[in-house]
Amino acid sequence: MSTPAERRKLLKAVYEQARNCVRCPLHQTRTTVVFGSGNADAELMFIGEAPGANEDRMGLPFVGQAGKLLDKLLEEIGMERGDVFIANVLKCRPPDNRDPHPNEIDACQPYLRRQIELIEPAVICTLGNFSTKLLRGESVGISRLHGREELREIGSRAVRLYPLYHPAAALYTPSTLEALRRDFHRIPELLALGAPEQPPALEPVPELEERAPELEEPVPELEEPAPELEEPAPEWEEPSAASGPEPTLAGEPERAAQLGLF
Q1: Cβ contacts of residue 245 below 8 Å, gap of 6+?
Q2: Nearest one of 75, 30, 26 to 181, comparing CA atoms
């Protein structure tokens, strides 16, 4: 098992990969990659759908009205953002805040699964349909599942998966807000249970005990060596300093802000 310091280092490496990602067409329209932020040692993780306009501009998840509601609900159960980790299924904003496309989810989900593997949360709250369906691997909607925790294996981790309505859906619908608040107040109860028993780790493939036997007779040498090339291949030249610094995305915020607390 890795130490917290090692996990943070690995998490930052995943962030560096994500911020330069071109796996789907969303890289053409994003302002910045919204990787996620929070506590790398959090027992509680929230996973939403995709960044909106405010998130795309600031590089942080849940900073609009839905984020303010999330902060308020956390306060009601005695927690704050520094206690949790918040991420999304997609790391880039879909144009006009449209729904994520299947190819975008497929391209982006390795980043999310690696985040879960490294953070090692005991409880994952999926916010809305897209994150719930992705992590459950089923098409059952959030209206039937919200507030019903279950044990799930996600990659190599066993977690308590707890689907919730997305805060954005509760902003203007009192009945949805009431259900979200009621479900939210059960989170401390789930955290008190601790992490579920983990599946046994896969054992590494053992090395071969015996080497392949050598040939009894050596391969005869060629009578004449192969002729050398008339001109040797040019040696690799280090790029000159004149090539300039590494390009950055237009409007990208400082990395410290993007990385949040981890």
Answers
A1: none
A2: 75
Domain with 95 in it:
4-199
User: Residue 211: what pLDDT?
Assistant: 42
pTM score: 0.79
Q: Which of 120-134 are b and which e, b meaning 16 or more Cβ less than 10 Å from the residue's Cβ? A: bbbbbbbbbbbbbbb
Does residue 65 lie within any of the structural domains?
Answer: yes
Structural domain count, the chain? 1
Look up tokens 């998490």; give the residue. Answer: 11
Residue type (1 letter), 100: P
Could you tell me the pLDDT band of residue 30, with boundaries at 50, 70 and 90?
very high
80 falls within a domain: yes
> CATH no. for residue 70?
3.40.470.10
Strands 85-88 and 123-127, sheet pairing: unpaired
Residue 202 pLDDT level (bands cut at 50, 70, 90): low
Q: How many CB atoms lie within 10 A of CB 260?
A: 19
Shortest CA distance to 160 belongs to which of 110, 198, 204?
198
Rounded to 5 degrees, φ, ψ at 184 are -60, -35
Contact 38, 82 (CB under 8 A): yes
The pairs formed by 25-31 with CB atoms below 8 angstroms and a separation of 24 or more are 25/104, 26/90, 26/92, 26/93, 26/94, 26/104, 27/92, 29/92, 29/93, 29/95, 30/56, 30/92, 30/93, 30/249, 31/56, 31/57, 31/93, 31/249, 31/250, 31/251, 31/252
CA distance 155 to 172: 36
pLDDT band at 2 (very low <50, low <70, confident <90, very high): confident
d(CA 151, CA 160): 5
Three-state DSSP class for residue 66: helix
* CA angle at 58 for the pair 52 and 64, rounded to the nearest 5°: 45
